[in-house]
Design brief:
four-stranded antiparallel beta sheet; binds coenzyme A; alpha+beta; Aminopeptidase; single chain; 8 strands; 5 helices
């Protein structure tokens, strides 16, 4: 497997404000936060400062872990994002895991999610994570296929978790070594 060569992955910057906020609004329909923890009330510069500081392990709220957010750009156009957590806490062990990704609707079914997931695996792998946890809703066929394509294996001890509303979260592990 190789990363989609035309994609550029980088931290979000000042010039990405409009594209990123448009992406955030468009993916609310999927019940997906393109810009994790962002709200309209937060100035863009403050948000990217906070995200990029988090990657360096600075300004991390109590109980949170070091994390980073990357935009995926195809010829300058924002097509998706991948967020990575460099370690797990109790919450992430149940739900969230090391890597989360989303692809804008108009760019789906072209292998973007697989490329995003592979980038996330390489990123946490370089930071010393040998096996990455990915979680997803049992009804999310696209994400399940992405995880399987990247080598995901259901957690033998806790393959799924059921919430009070009946929704099920699947928990997969992927070796980061085969994805470097
Ligand atoms: C799920 C999502 C990331 C897939 O993105 P994508 O770029 O279309 O995925 P890819 O083109 O890389 O396809 C990866 C695999 O998923 C399959 N797939 C993608 N969308 C699918 C769908 N809606 N139903 C069934 N399979 C789907 C593809 O066929 C491919 O499988 P294959 O390699 O076995 O052929 C995208 O639909 C999305 O962003 N959804 C909203 C956010 C989200 O659910 N994020 C994941 C949270 S865990």
């Amino acid at each position: 497997m190789s990363l989609n060569p035309s994609l550029e992955f980088r931290e979000l910057a000042s010039q990405d404000e409009q594209q990123a906020i448009d992406a955030h609004q468009s993916m609310l329909a999927d019940d997906f936060e393109f810009l994790p923890t962002w709200s309209m009330a937060e100035p863009w510069e403050d948000y990217i400062y906070r995200m990029n500081a988090g990657r360096r392990g600075e300004h991390i709220p109590d109980g949170w872990v070091r994390s980073a957010l990357f935009g995926a750009f195809d010829d300058g156009e924002l097509v998706g994002r991948v967020s990575v957590r460099y370690e797990l806490n109790d919450f992430l062990l149940q739900n969230g895991g090391h890597i989360g990704y989303g692809v804008l609707p108009e760019h789906r079914r072209r292998g973007m999610a697989v490329a995003l997931c592979q980038f996330g695996l390489a990123e946490v792998g370089h930071a010393g994570v040998d096996s990455a946890l990915l979680t997803c809703d049992s009804m999310n066929a696209g994400s399940i296929a992405t995880i399987l394509r990247c080598g995901g294996v259901l957690d033998p001890q806790l393959p799924s978790l059921e919430a009070a509303d009946g929704s099920k979260t699947l928990r997969y592990w992927i070796s980061t070594q085969s994805n470097h």
